[in-house]
Amino acid sequence: MSAEVSRESIEQLLKQVTIPPRPALLIELDRELGGAEPDFRAVAALVGKDVGISAAMLKTLNSPLFALRSKIGNVTQAVQLLGMRNVRNIVTGLMLRNMVGAGQNLERFWDSAEKVAAINAYLCSILPKTPRDEAYTFGLFRDCGIPILMQRFPEYRDTLKRAAGDDRPMPVVEDERHGTNHATVGYMVARSWGLSDAICQSILRHHDIDMINGKDSTVPLAHTLVAINFFAEHLNDTMLRMRQDSQWELHGEMVLDYLGITHKEYVEIQDDVMGLGA
After folding, report:
1. What are phi and psi of 55, to 5 degrees?
2. Which part of the chain is CATH 1.10.3210.10?
3. For the whole prediction, is pTM greater than 0.90?
4. Potential cystine with 163: which of 95, 125, 170, 277 (Cβ 3.0-4.6 Å)?
């Protein structure tokens, strides 16, 4: 899959699918962060106005899987500890569930997305130089195109079943049936909502194994995010949902090698996720 989406593809996609607009809170946050001297107190006040998002953010940050060294008691403390842009990333991810696929009985889908995102954050706590907030946000956004396509195409659930039994990457099957795919839709949502280029590229190419095997060296952080998320999905499927993971059998060794994780460390991480995520 290309590292960019062509103008023609974007125009065709927008004719078929409605991209949810950037929430007002994110517009206000971006206005503050784009100023000459962003004020952490103003950022905390903006987030604090949304009681539901504030509570969800504190719950997320204090989760054992997020692996912070100390408990965070309020939004101001979160901004001071994590930084304004990191908090913006977390808030963005938390707002996604409220805006995308509401009313479609997708509780299991979002619960799984949140679990993978949290495992992403945990893995970043034990891997060097990988930002937890970006890994968490990517984990939530990576499949957000699925509920959007589900809402647009009544037959999309059948597409998911077909893709599950097809050896080809899922976006190939989606493109054949709908002329677009969930990775491209998710990429457009992330771009529209002002997420970083690394997250956008990770969403666009999270089914592209070249992002992990080193054949494409663009946007290095995106490669790492895709590898971490591949590992997190494997842990969620096998350790928490007790499902077989055929993709891990094909590419797992390459992922562990890319991340610098030994077999002994892999087993230890499995045990930790079982203990923290139960």
Report:
1. -65, -40
2. 1-20+105-278
3. no
4. 170
* Contact indicator for 125, 77 with CB cutoff of 8 Å: no
What gap in Å lies between CA 52 and CA 86, rounded to an integer?
18
Contact 127/259 with Cβ under 8 angstroms?
Answer: yes
Q: What is the DSSP string of 49-75?
A: T-HHHHHHHHHHHTSGGG--SS---SH
Q: Tell me which residue of 211, 213, 156, 154 sits closest to 180, measured CA to CA.
A: 156
Pair 186, 144: CB distance under 8 Å:
yes
Digit-coded pLDDT (tens) for 222-264: 999 999 999 999 999 888 777 777 888 889 999 999 999 999 9
Amino acid identity at 112: S
**Distance between CA atoms of residues 162 and 181, nearest Å:** 14
Give the pLDDT score at 103. Answer: 60
d(CA 106, CA 262): 36
Q: For 10, what's the count of Cα atoms within 13 Å in the CB-facing half-sphere?
A: 10
Topology of domain 1-20+105-278 in CATH is Hypothetical protein af1432 (1.10.3210)
